[in-house]
Amino acid sequence: MNKFYVTTPIYYASDSPHIGTAYTTIAADILARWNRSKGKKVFFLTGLDEHGQKIEESALESGLTPQELVDSLAPKFKKTWENLNISNDDFIRTTEERHQKVVTEIIKRIFNNGDIYKGEYEGWYCIPDESFWTELQLVDGKCPQCGREVKKIREETYFFKLNKYQEKLLEFYNQNPDFISPETRKNEIINRVKEGLKDISITRTTVKWAIPFPFDKKHTVYVWVEALTNYISALDYPNGEKFKTFWPADVELMSKEINWFHSVIWPAMLFSAGIEPPKKNFIHGWLTVNGKKMSKSLGNVVDPNKIVEKYGADAFRYFLMREIPFGQDGDFSEKALLNRYNSELADQLGNLLNRVLVLVEKNFDGIVPKPLESSKLAKLALNIPKAVDDSMESFQFHNALNDIFYFVSEANKYINETKPWEIKDKGKLGGILYELLEVLRFLSILLYPFIPETSEKIIEQLGLEKKFSFEDLKWGVLKPGTKIKRGEILFKKIET
Ligand code: MSP
Q1: How many angstroms does the Cα of residue 96 sit away from the middle of ligand 1?
Q2: With a threshold of 0.85, does the pTM exceed it?
Q3: What does DSSP say about strands 292-293 and 330-332: parallel, antiparallel, or unpaired?
């Protein structure tokens, strides 16, 4: 089926978006745009995790009700994604009724399958991560995941029989070797599952800001169980057309701290409810800022909106994807961004467009000249799309950009070597410029998922319709006689 469903985690509506959450959302956007360019029917979901103890406590701290807190944050997220040109098809909030309905439905299915039983939970709880830990798992008495304080809890609870799914999960990982990527993240999960799975607590009696547990009004549903369900509640499970079209998800993106929930608990819940698991979880790396972990207490949390104001959305998107091999940890610094901005976006890409269009204006009154029979760049153009597509399909965004920028630098080199300004033969000069214009058209399509605003500017300046389709990656589509419309330069250099 020619569809593609990509998701981001739903971010906690307890804080404003930052460059970490922006990173995942930009990556999802790139995949969504790429797949749209390939002609697929795409559904791209992001949203907010609005229930649970973490939100309850944050609200209390800021003197708001939980509803007021999440209502104040939702527009901030939406605005930030707009500023970053995120093309999500839906934005789910877990306080919405459509979500609560599906959570109740899935709990009922799991219950009716005999996988929920009553008991008592005693152990530790990390509120910032909303996660349960045993005494043994703690590191120096703190949360092994985030290093923060944990609270002892002892409560009546309903358990989900996670243990029952141990063998089934291992078999599933075995049969679907691409379910968790990269490999190291997969091995971590498999090893942990092999060590044995404990049934997990899925209800709380002390958390009120949550969805009621349908079988016992004293209890509410554990926030992670409801949060994971967002991926199908946004599709109107069980009867919605969207569910029929888009489930299972083609890829769920996240970073490693929540891999366990997505690669163990979520598929086990789905097995129990009789629903197919997603096709893939891709676990990307963790961003630091100037080499340090980003945290409120360090005061180094970077607001993506500020970066967009200074450098534009495209420069930020480009930097993150070019700088950090997707799947590995990486660092954000404005200095590194500025370097790439000046030397790659301004000097290489921006300059290429400007040089070529100026030459076409000067020599052909801005009219696209006729091609020659043979073309050096056409040969490159034949191979680049496939190479880029292979990288995109394996989430190697930095490799895709490397290949695209190789194309840019080859085109610049071609200008330097052929010296069009010295060529007297109009036919030959026209042929060379035609090649360069075609390269620019290819570039606008290939770069569109990464830097959509810039791609739109390129295609407009080429005098063409704003359309970015993989099908048009064929040499010779640009018609001689087209009037170019040279505009502003793409990236003004910024003094360091
Ligand atoms: N609400 C849960 C997710 C529920 S999904 C069913 C949650 N929210 S979160 O706000 O903490 O977002 C975590 C996700 O944000 C990470 O998995 C990652 O996608 C992204 N990132 C947050 N900080 C990050 C970095 N510093 N670096 C890279 N990505 C990070 O967990």
Answers
A1: 21
A2: yes
A3: unpaired
| Helix axis angle, 19-37 to 304-311, nearest 10° | 60
**Closest atom, ligand 1, to C-alpha of 254:** 19
- Tell whether the torsion through CA atoms of 410, 413, 415 and 417 is positive or negative: negative
Which tens digit of pLDDT belongs to each residue from 109-157?
Answer: 999 999 999 999 999 999 999 999 998 899 999 999 889 999 999 999 9
How many independent structural domains does the chain possess?
1
Residue 33 domain-assigned (yes or no): no
- Distance, CA 286 to ligand 1 centroid (Å)? 9
278 Cβ inside 6 Å of ligand 1: no
12 lines ligand 1 (CB under 6 A): yes
Q: Which atom of ligand 1 is nearest to the CA of 9?
A: 5
CB 26 less than 6 A from any atom of ligand 1: no
pLDDT at 464 over 70: yes
Q: From atom 13 of ligand 1, which residue's Cα is the shortest distance away?
A: 11
Q: Ligand 1 atom 30: the closest Cα is on which residue?
A: 20
Q: What is the CATH number of the domain that holds 465?
A: 1.10.730.10
Give the structural domain span for 373: 333-472
Q: Using alpha carbons, select from 143, 130, 142 the residue that is nearest to residue 13.
A: 130
With respect to residue 188, please indicate whether it lies within any of the assigned structural domains.
no
Judge whether 63 lies within some domain: no
Q: What is the pLDDT of residues 175-217, one digit of tens each?
A: 999 999 999 999 999 999 999 999 999 999 999 999 999 999 9
What tokens does 283 get?
A: 């676990």
